[in-house]
Amino acid sequence: MSPKEKAEELIEKMYIEQNMYRSDCIACALICVEEIILSHAIWSTEQDEYLDYYNEVKQELENNK
Question: What is the pLDDT at residue 49?
Fold first, then answer.
């Protein structure tokens, strides 16, 4: 799944589960992705594809604002 597709999937999940406005869904998805990035940074000393992927997902979410 591309980062753009993952960003859209997260937005859609927020909408389906919480029935929020799109802008609120994006904000919540960004919080989730930032937590994934932060927790990875705490537990891993290496920059890897996982971290790169979620940084790209974060960028896609920010582009959707």
Answer: 85
